[in-house]
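A student in our group prepared the protein record below, which I am reviewing. What it holds is a sequence and that sequence's fold in token form. My question to you is simply how this chain folds and whether the tokens agree. Do not assume that whoever made the record got everything right. I have pasted the whole thing underneath without changing anything:
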Amino acid sequence: MTFLIFFIVPMILGFWAQHRVKSTFNRNLQVAVSNGMTGAQVARRILDANGLNDVPVEQAPGSLTDHYDPRSRSVHLSEPVYTSSSVASTAVGAHEVGHAIQHANAYAFFRFRSAMFPAVQFASNIWALFLFGGFILQVFQLVYVGIALFAIAVLFQLVTLPVEFDASRRAKRQLQDLGLVAANEAEGVKSTLTAAAWTYVAGALASVAMLLYYLSVLRR
């Protein structure tokens, strides 16, 4: 029962979230926007409207690889988003620019997540070595260190949630204020952004469940 609660249920939720975001994205990728603008053009339009003329919009390889890089202050859009004039590309392009606006406005959760990133990189690469090594060697001080490092990674995922939801909120507002989506396209934008948000929610829930499971094993 413990295994079911902490592993199987979050895993099923994660698969469901991944399927939903892919199916929703692919469906709305086939729906053309009336203004004919590509995701790259939408991103550029919103950046310029917010005084972020120096932030470049670049094409990234792969699909669903869209992201904003705070180190180089650049927006990276996957090929389907960069070149497509669709509801999905409009939504994703605007969302990534939402992160650029967060950066420019020093949004608190964005700054906190960026500050955490070096520690999270270290913790994510080494926590399992301490955790499982400690259990195997019966050195529980190592287990404590492993759980603490994993908890840092979990905290990062939790902090990511308000960052992503806020970026989507900014995206929808910018698209509406700048007249970049028609009334009949707004629902498709919303469904694309909501589906993407669920992947972060599912990932965070799975990580929290795993952390609680490790703590319960240690307590026993």
User: Anything to note?
Assistant: The two ends are 15 Å apart (CA to CA). The longest strand covers residues 74-78. The chain is about 75% helix and 5% strand. The chain has a mean pLDDT of 92.
